[in-house]
Amino acid sequence: NAGVTQTPKFRVLKTGQSMTLLCAQDMNHEYMYWYRQDPGMGLRLIHYSVGEGTTAKGEVPDGYNVSRLKKQNFLLGLESAAPSQTSVYFCASSYGGSPTDTQYFGPGTRLTVL
Amino acid sequence: AQSVTQPDIHITVSEGASLELRCNYSYGATPYLFWYVQSPGQGLQLLLKYFSGDTLVQGIKGFEAEFKRSQSSFNLRKPSVHWSDAAEYFCAVGVSGGSYIPTFGRGTSLIVHP
User: Phi, psi (5° rounding) for residue B18?
Assistant: First the structure.
């Protein structure tokens, strides 16, 4: 079991460029999440998905899009990157949406936008 | 909406000393409470969680936390800290109903001196 994996681990973009972050889980989890982590801010939810083909907005969705075409994958897209999107991005998954369902986190992607 | 506060940005302890990390939450009813640990360069790992029942919760790695409703607190404790405990610690709170998504605190960085 690889758990939750994220690709790439590091990326540097120029303002206006686009990119896609890939999250994959092999635990057959229904729920998947994208968070961003900024110094002194903790984790903030960007988007989440409660199942294949579904997506929903979190606390800070502006500037990001997501897709969940396959149950095991959750993609986070930046159409036109901005320096304010410099952050560490974490993907997580859980079996369901109950508080008893533990969230499992990936190792993170460190993104720098110049 | 629920919120969580971690008053301490940094905590420094000597190896072998006891540890208490503070967490206060804001929510009208009994919340679901969590502590996560993030080692350098890693994703978050669940240490323990509280839903109901016994207010003293045991977790992994020798950690425990106590839920005190009267103080709206869920402080994390460890009797004897090891150098490997140096990490970032996040408290999170969630509420029931709908799609459950936890809200994270800003984190407390634990520094362990030899």
Answer: -80, 160
Chain A, nearest residue to B43 by Cα: A107
Beta strand spans in chain A (E): 4-7, 10-13, 19-25, 31-38, 42-49, 56-57, 65-67, 73-78, 87-94, 104-105, 109-113
Q: Chain A interface residues facing chain B, Cβ-Cβ under 8 Å?
A: 4, 31, 33, 40-45, 48, 50, 56, 58, 90, 92, 97-103, 105-108
pLDDT tens-place string over residues A45-86: 999 999 999 999 998 999 999 999 999 999 999 999 999 999
How far is the C-alpha of B110 from the C-alpha of A54, rounded, in Å? 38
Enumerate the residues of chain A whose CB falls inside 8 A of the CB of residue B100.
97-99, 101
CA dihedral B30, B27, B5, B67 (to 10 degrees): -20
Of the candidates A21, A30, A20, which has an alpha carbon nearest to the alpha carbon of residue A52?
A: A30
Q: In the 8-state DSSP scheme, what is residue A6?
A: E
Answer whether residue A8 shows pLDDT above 80.
yes
Q: Tokens 């936390």 — which residue?
A: B65
For B84, phi and psi rounded to 5 degrees?
A: -70, -10
